[in-house]
Amino acid sequence: MKRLLVAFAVMASLTLAASAQDMRDFSDDLGRTVSIPVNPQRIVSVREEQFTAPLWELGANLVGSAGLTDANKNDGKPYPRGAYDLFHLTFENSGLTWIGGPNEPDFEAIAALEPDLILAPAWQQDIVEKYSAIAPTVIFDPTKDRALDRYRRIADVAGKLDEFTHRLEGYQSRVDVYRAVVADTIGDPADVSVVVAQASTEEGGGIAISSNNEALGQVLHDLGFGMPQIVQDLGLGNDLISGELLETIQADFMIGTYNVAWGQTPSAQNAAWDEVAPGWKDFLHAARHNQHFYIDREPMRALSFRTLEETMSIIAANIASRGFVPLED
């Protein structure tokens, strides 16, 4: 009973605080119109790489974040995925409060922070009312648009559009530089195909392909590289295809990702390929000619301009600044 009374008291104080703020309407990715503060002061993020990283980079008023726990990372203590890898952001060095795992939020911990805005991912729509009972809650769907478009909307919600615009100008100048590098070394990037593909041994196995894999998808798009038709047909989506369709992902270059904390080292990822598609190293053009490489998934998926610029440097070093064997039609 005491806990219930405390919860009601917190909600009442939040209601009073919200009424004192200037509010505006925002349409989220569930099609809901949410009344949010014009200048939120106490934001809680329920997805680390998608919301915590960009909010931290922009200097938004973030007070709490979800976080993972892995035995061999951050000494086994909770850490904000992606933001930890990119900024070495921890709950100990940031002043942020851990509000549970991204799929197991602690609603009491969230309420105790007295947030005036909560950001949550679309796959949590079944519990959005629980969030909304605490504070205005905006839902974003990471599969709906490209990284930069989503980042702009997150900046808008957080009242940080000016900072986003300033950083965007810097990013676009880097894009211009690397486009010049691409033009100098390989000519028209549309003539060079790149596929983002990952062997998966889960649920029967297959090859995961994507045209919109966070910073990778954004950078490849901005630099103008081509992609196999099967990936183009995905639009902004992704798919898991059978190893029997290996021919359809032939490309000049192939990129995969790894996550050391989860035992997914590059050698482990190669072993997954061996299991899912035996003979892939000889059959796939990119693998046969040493034009297949991996990127660390965790910092790459942390939505931020730092991620975009670092990923662009990796792409330039591995594709645009060396000779390669073109895929024959």
Describe the structure in brief.
With 329 residues, this protein is of the alpha/beta class. The chain has helices at residues 2-20, 48-58, 83-87, 91-94, 107-112, 128-132, 147-157, 161-185, 214-223, 229-232, 266-276, 280-283, 285-288, 297-300, 305-320, and strands spanning 23-27, 33-37, 43-45, 62-65, 97-98, 100-101, 104-105, 117-121, 137-140, 194-200, 206-210, 238-241, 253-258, 292-296. Helix content is 42%, strand content 18%.
Low-confidence stretches: 1-8
Ends distance: 72 Å
Q: What percent of residues are in strands?
A: 15-25%
Rounded average pLDDT: 92
Rg, alpha carbons: 22 Å
Question: Which structural class do you get from the secondary structure elements?
Answer: alpha/beta
| Adjacency order of strands in the biggest sheet | 5-4-3-8-9
- How many helices? The count is 15
List the secondary-structure elements in sequence, H or E: HEEEHEHHEEEHEHEHHEEHHEEHHHEHH
Helix content: 40-55%
Main sheet? 5 strands, parallel
Q: What overall geometry do the principal axes of the alpha carbons give? A: globular
DSSP E strands, number: 14
